[in-house]
Amino acid sequence: xFASLFIYPPSASTVAAEVxxxxxxxxxxxxxxxxxxxxxxxxxxxxxxxxxxNEIATAVHGSTALELxxxxxxxxxxxxxxxxxxxxxxxxxxxxxxxxxxxxVGKQWMWKVQHMEGxxxxxxxxxPVGEPVKLTMTSEDVIHxxxxxxxRVKSDVVxxxxxxxxxxxxxxxxxxxxxxxYCGTEHSRMIGKVVAMEPADYQAWLSADxxxxxxxxxxxxxxxxxxxxxxxxxxxGCQTCHLQGPGGxxxxxxxxxxxxxxxxDGESVTADDAYIRESILNPRAKTVAGYQQVMPTFAxxxxxxxxxxxxxxxxSLGGAEEEAGGAVSQGGRPGTTDHGSAGDL
Amino acid sequence: METTERRVNYLNVDHxxxxxxxxxxxxxxxxxxxxxxxxxxxxxxxFAAAVRVELLTPAGDxxxxxxxxxxxxxxxxxMVFFFLIPSIPAVFGNFFxxxxxxxxxxxxxKLNLMSWYIYMFGAIFTLAAVITGGxxxxxxxxxxxxxxxxxxxxxxxxxxxFISGFSSILTGLNFIVSIHRMRAPGLTWFRLPLFVWxxxxxxxxxxxxxxxxxxxxxxxxxxxxxGFGIFDPTRGGDPLLFQHLFWFYSHPAVYIMILxxxxxxxxxxxxxxxxxxxxxxxxxxxxxxxxVISFLVWGHHMFVSGQSVYAGMIFSFLTxxxxxxxxxxxxxxxxxxxxxxxxxxxxxxxxxxxxxxxTIGGLTGIFLGTLGTxxxxxxxxxxxxxxxxxxxxxxxxxxxxxLHYWWPKMFGRxxxxxxxxxxxxxxxxGFNVTFFTQFVMGSQGMPRxxxxxxxxxxxxxxxxxxxxxxIGASFLLMAGxxxxxxxxxxxAPANPWGARSLEWAIxxxxxxxxFHEIPTxxxxxxxxxxxxxxxxx
Lengths: 345, 537
Description:
Chain A is an alpha+beta fold. Chain A is built from 9 helices and 13 strands. Chain A has helices at 2-7, 14-47, 64-93, 199-207, 218-221, 225-235, 273-281, 304-316, 338-343; strands at residues 57-58, 100-107, 110-115, 120-122, 124-128, 132-139, 144-148, 153-157, 163-168, 173-179, 192-197, 260-262, 268-270. Chain A has a 5-stranded mixed sheet with strand order 4-3-2-6-9, with helices on one face. A 5-stranded mixed sheet of chain A has the order 5-11-10-7-8. A two-stranded antiparallel sheet of chain A has the order 12-13. Chain B is 66% helix and 0% strand. Chain B is mainly alpha-helical. The longest helix of chain B has 36 residues, at 65-100. Classes of the chains: A alpha+beta, B mainly alpha. At the A-B interface, α2, β1, α3, β8 and β10 of A face α3, α5, α8, α10 and α11 of B.
């Protein structure tokens, strides 16, 4: 449609088509209603203008039937709109289970991206087309918002919590990436691009490693997140309490990801990304039943990127999908073999 | 009747600066507010002009980024808290509510004067921030940017907003008590002008909502000044808590800004079509319904913040519920014109603009209140355009319409109708040029609060900026003919428009105590003489 070229950015994700159809429905509805009102005003102002012979209005008594009609019809229309849009929102908010994961950390004023295979980039996001991609995002400072107009998706990136968003690109190409939540001086420079590639090209890009150097410990940062997590795990001495086998001061971590955990206050909670992050930073908030509240906080000692790496590591130890008993040696990631050395202690 | 020449009225009964600054006459207090909010409107407009001129080019070349951020922040703070919120209640509510209910003043005249002083005190705090370097958090003061990271003057304007909130609370209290206790004999609830109903609903929100935002903003100041930690995630706080608290007030505050405008609309539409309002009760009660439901929709500002999917759905659903009473009002006003005797005098021109612009503002609200499209449009220029259609196309046009309607009553002078028509046409064109383009930009994904932007948006930004020049011309012209009417305008009769409510039954300008004797009311406010059959033979 020509109009969509003019009014709308390119449509390049699976949800974009759904959102656009709904958008154009609303545009047409709005046009019909506002032009209708404007025409009625115009017609009345002309037809009943004050002039000789029409100095005095004609009595019109209110009409309950009419008022009911124009209360009930808008209500009906709005419920239809609500239901339609809620179903789209459901699609936008629920990443498919098989989505590939990418970590994003926002800070004033850049986007730091880390792929699971280890490659990192700044203000650019490379993704394969035809594959659902899930971003797990957090911020090091203020609230940002990750916005890709061509995909019709956006999510705030909030310090202290993991927000996720997902999309599946349908067309290769470069698309705008904007920060949509005002975040200070250079907010409008916190922009970049999303590069959607053929899956094979994406794989090639992943392995051609030329990640930007960000600090002295480039080596560690260049590892795949799960391996980096392994490293952080042992640097912070986590293995002292979280043993590889039973009997540790802290709970066994292998096989816990995505599972229900019973807490000491009788509640239970799913061990998802947010829970793991919280348990590292604020261990007393939701302690697992059967354990003492002795773990110190790691707030301020572990960076957001290292936290994400720890989450990836614990995830790599297996979880809900691989049924109980599949304790330590699953995952199949080459990096997780490092774990063995941690267990030696 | 004697001639209007030498009559004593509230303006000439007393002279000198003291007689104004210590007045307890609700009409004089209204004029004090009119002067103050006009200054604020001018300031807010200048900030907006700076923003729009910067956006003529994609590069940030006129202003530095920090300066730009301060400009849009001050534009928002000044316009929302110091113009829109007080505008109609503090000026026209103060002036006409007592007269419309047949009273000699509000219930608490001294409290009323105190409200103005509190407002001024708050305004001075805020302006002090401008002079000492400005604030750059956006008018929404989102944490943790405002509480920890911003390096600008956050505490001063935060206190300014906190202080001016008390002025709103006291005004609301004064109105509610007056409406309950001081109606003239025979003036039953359903004989009240709809403007009074709108003031009643607005006052409810003032009293119930303002304390929440006051505390919230104070918490930001305390967090910043004394290192509290309520919104700081590194110390167990939650930055989203701020958004919940802030929008719990600030969404109802949108209705603080629009309900009074709707009240004015009911007065204008009836008077200038000489016809009773279509569906009095529906309009009266829907104001109160809006006031109540508006407290339950704050989460629609947070669809992409990470709040739960189900919370998003409930807030979206409730948003539709609050939209319907507004739709009903628009249809009722339109139906009121049917078979009326319609005059297109200046106030009515603004009323018709309101109907068109507010309809567009309301309908584009659907795009944002529904979840599916909001994810894409949130925090883009679409939002900017939407709320300007509601707040400027709605509230400001209603305010200007009211100003033209009541000007003869307030000052006893008529203004130049021709110039008034030019001004309203200029505004209508300029407004749509400025803000309709922003709907398009927003749909294309142009984010808000950008001082430089990608080149593809330049043409639309330039068109938008040129529209603001027409708006500016419209207001300058208006200021010109309104001021000159005070000197050279024709003397206004008591009832130039043939309206039926009580303020038109007394002289223009009114005497100090409004009525020589308290009237007894026999009928509703819109009982215009009508013919039963077709008007033409």
